[in-house]
Amino acid sequence: MSTLPADTDLDLESDADGDIASDDSPARTGIQSIEVGFRLLEVLTHTNAPMMLRDLARAAPMNPAKAHRYLVSFARLGLVSQTPEGRYDLGPFALEMGLVSLNRQDPMRRARPAAAALRDEIDHTIGLAVWGNRGPAIVHWEEASHPVTVSLRLGDVMPMLNSATGRVFGAYLPRAQTLSLIQGELDRATAQVDANPELPRTLEAYDAICAEVRVHGAARIHGGVLPGINAMSLPVFDANGQLCLVLIALGAQSTFDTTWSGPLERRLRLAAQQLSADLGYVATHTPQS
């Protein structure tokens, strides 16, 4: 005889939206309103910008008044936030959940201690980034003993055009996956009269940068996103040969040498290759120095 409790033992109550969703098995009983409200979070997860209530409700699909009730509760829980313009976006607790989930994945579990050991050895700030729904997201930092003053935080998204991390993702991910973000940044760079003259202004120019990244197996930036800060980023591949995360190192321009085949570049390359090997990746070619 089953020891599972019956619905009457669970003290489940139905709300105006029809709270209880069940089938023939009490073990599969759920809260329907949670499943309905989740559609709003799912839409926000797969969009590239905050949304107005009417657009979010239409995409769910859901009546705007009903969507607003869910969003009020989600906002209280930190799952959504609202911009000054009244648009809705994922909130701080949603970000926290995402970061925790990413850090529990096998590549991240293996990469975090390796990043800490590398930081201890070279005494430069080391980071890890993964591809999120909005682009390259920072998910882990190991600060050097002489911390570099940066405005980056966990969860921040790096630009595709002028960050070493973004260029690695641009070089190794399928272009269909990255094109909308790359093109959006290209459009904004073209529209800005005082934009960084070193920024690529066309997709062809960006393709040339990505080709160079693949040749060297790394990307380097001199004061791109962070003035006065040099950075190098290198790909880490999984057992299927797919890019699963990016290893980042950065430091002050006065102490961080980005010379190809220099001592720092060679050590970072070895660390990225070791991480890839730990994940089961078998290299088929050696990048040029």
Structure description:
With 289 residues, the chain is an alpha+beta fold. The protein has helices spanning 32-45, 53-59, 64-77, 92-104, 106-122, 164-172, 175-191, 203-216, 263-278, and strands at residues 20-21, 30-31, 80-82, 88-90, 125-132, 135-142, 219-222, 229-237, 243-252. A 5-stranded antiparallel sheet has the order 6-5-9-8-7, sandwiched between helices. Helix 6 packs across helix 8.
Describe the SSE topology.
Blueprint: E1 20-21, E2 30-31, H1 32-45, H2 53-59, H3 64-77, E3 80-82, E4 88-90, H4 92-104, H5 106-122, E5 125-132, E6 135-142, H6 164-172, H7 175-191, H8 203-216, E7 219-222, E8 229-237, E9 243-252, H9 263-278
Helix pairs in contact: 2-3, 5-9, 6-8
Spatial order of the strands in the main sheet?
Answer: 6-5-9-8-7
> Which structural category fits the helices and strands?
alpha+beta
Counted beta strands: 9
Q: What value does the Rg take, in angstroms?
A: 23 Å
The average pLDDT is 83
| Outline | globular
How much helix is in the residues?
40-55%
Number of continuous helical runs: 9
Task: Give the N-terminus to C-terminus distance in angstroms.
Answer: 68 Å
Low-confidence stretches: 1-16, 20-24
Largest beta-sheet characterization: 5 strands, antiparallel
Estimate the strand proportion: 15-25%
Q: SSE string, helix = H, strand = E?
A: EEHHHEEHHEEHHHEEEH
